[in-house]
Amino acid sequence: MSKNLTKREEDYSKWYNELVVKADLAENSGVRGCMVIKPYGYAIWEKMQAELDRMFKETGHSNAYFPLFVPKSMFEAEEKNAEGFAKECAIVTHYRLKNDPDKPGKLMVDPNAKLEEELIVRPTSEAIIWSTYKGWVQSYRDLPLLINQWANVVRWEMRTRLFLRTAEFLWQEGHTAHATKAEALEESEKMMHVYADFAENFMAIPVIKGIKTETERFAGAEETFCIEALMQDGKALQAGTSHFLGQNFAKAFDVKFANQEGKQDYVWGTSWGVSTRLMGALVMTHSDDNGLVLPPNLAPIQVVIVPIFKTEEELIKISKVADDLVFQFKKLHISVKYDDRNTQKPGFKFADWELKGVPVRIAIGPKDLENGTFEIVRRDNLTKEVVSNDGVADYINNLLVTIQNDLFQKALVYRENHVTEVNDFEEFKNILETKGGFIAAHWDGTAQTEEKIKDLTKATIRCIALGRLENKGKCVLTGLESAGRVLFAKAY
Known about the structure:
Blueprint: H1 12-22, E1 26-28, E2 35-37, H2 39-58, E3 62-63, E4 69-71, H3 72-75, H4 79-85, E5 90-94, E6 97-99, E7 107-109, E8 114-121, H5 126-136, E9 145-154, E10 168-178, H6 181-201, E11 208-211, E12 223-230, E13 236-246, H7 248-252, E14 256-258, E15 264-266, E16 268-275, H8 277-286, E17 303-307, H9 312-331, E18 336-338, H10 346-355, E19 360-364, H11 366-371, E20 373-378, E21 384-388, H12 392-416, E22 419-421, H13 425-434, E23 438-442, H14 447-457, E24 460-465, E25 473-474, E26 481-482, E27 485-489
Parallel strand pairs: 3-9, 17-18, 17-19, 22-23
Antiparallel strand pairs: 1-2, 4-8, 5-8, 6-7, 9-10, 10-16, 11-12, 11-24, 12-13, 13-16, 14-15, 19-20, 20-21, 23-27, 24-27, 25-26
Helix pairs in contact: 2-6
């Protein structure tokens, strides 16, 4: 098969868009700005979801589900949050349609079916969840409340791109309530570390952990912890956020509890989430001009076996060996596909599975049966080797671990080579345009300077890295005092 993918160096954005569609991950739908996630793409998301869900439950969280619709007055209760999302809100104003008397066969909004109160289609669920928590929390014995939900949300984006920015997307959102500020802060930071663990050990994506500036902070939060990743085109991507909400939402929704001294106090809150945007990060971090490159820990199919035959008799012999191999892989919990389609030639199958990023391909032909060998190809570097069929399942099991580690190391080397310290604004602009990546530069701490740099360069402060050295210096733009370097980048 011909992949006809645009080369990354020619047009990275076009390459990404083509790859997502041609690799059968997703496609644009008949609804403006919304996508259809296809079975192969959804299978990857399901693996992400399963691992994250396990990690959440291991840290004491339980899943629940809350309504898609939020009454407008409830949404407005926490002002900063409402203002922050106002421009992206979709609103339900009526509950019924009727036949249009002037246009036979067409429907119109029934003017007599106007809602008493308009409903916001959730862009995030703090409002509906905190209004619910009011009835769940009375005493310190009810805390901490550690809840997560898997859901869809709607943010009316004007410029969309599959997985990275769509009007509707899938995500998880954790919402927790605590008796003390210290507990809530600990929870916020803990979930950032959970996200980093997942990104690095499953997605094979190295991330920088840090906090957002006040300007970039989640609306309604007192602190936002984040993980930032770097894509192959030198742009950053926010891969996960965890917010310390203070008592803002508790006060907005009057969520109080009786503490151990019997006194009434407001609870302390957090919220945290990752979305199908991680699918975009996965594609952009590892993939190449031949198609997807998937880390084995998230690949729906880790090994594909392709028979090479001319006669039905050869196929029967090869299939017997392949079936035994499939059995061995399944015992090792390796997901495997035996592609014995007789409608496509081996060359087509090779290209197809290469495009879809299957980590390991095994080819078996008549000569392999004679020699007791298999031809094995790694998707990450396209190296080919001939391996004895004796103990091949264990060999492949170890190879998958090697591929996972190699993908992480390759991405880490790229990231480390694209963190550049700069000390003046001309150098800042030059590095941004010629090299990209993260720019470590001094900043005077003001929102005005942050906004001016963004206006001049389109670069934003991605994070103030945790554990950064407090080496004082001069702001890269204003020359005013700076407490330490922060990380700037252009971002998705």
